[in-house]
Amino acid sequence: MEDLDALKARAKKLNAQATQAKMDLHDLSEELPTNWEQILEVAQRAYDAHKNLMAARKELAAASA
């Protein structure tokens, strides 16, 4: 199991990735119908980023308890 500092660093990195994915999805939505073909790809990337972030936060909470 990773130490607490490594878990915090990983969660911070995943948070940045999830935030960027959210912004990419937002930007794409504002450009519609331009690049509509990218909707599934960008949405999947945002979903995966947030799924990984939530798992890391859960792991961090368990390690901190």
Describe the structure.
Keywords: Coiled coil, Nitrogen fixation. The chain is mainly alpha-helical. It has a single domain (4-64), classed as Helix hairpin bin (Helix Hairpins, Orthogonal Bundle), CATH 1.10.287. It is built from 2 helices and no strands. The model has no long low-confidence stretch (mean pLDDT 95).
Fill in the keyword field for this structure.
65 residues; Put_N_fixation; Helix Hairpins; coiled coil; mainly alpha; 2 helices; nitrogen fixation; 83% helix; Helix_hairpin_bin_sf
Mean pLDDT, rounded to whole units? 95
Distance between the termini: 14 Å
Structural domain count: 1
Helix tally?
A: 2
Structural class: mainly alpha
CATH first level? Mainly Alpha
Strand content: under 5%
What name does the CATH topology carry?
Answer: Helix Hairpins
The helical percent reads: over 70%
Sheet with most strands: none
* CATH superfamily annotation: Helix hairpin bin
Radius of gyration: 15 Å
Question: How is the secondary structure organized here?
Answer:
Blueprint (H helix, E strand, L loop, with lengths): L3 H28 L7 H26 L1
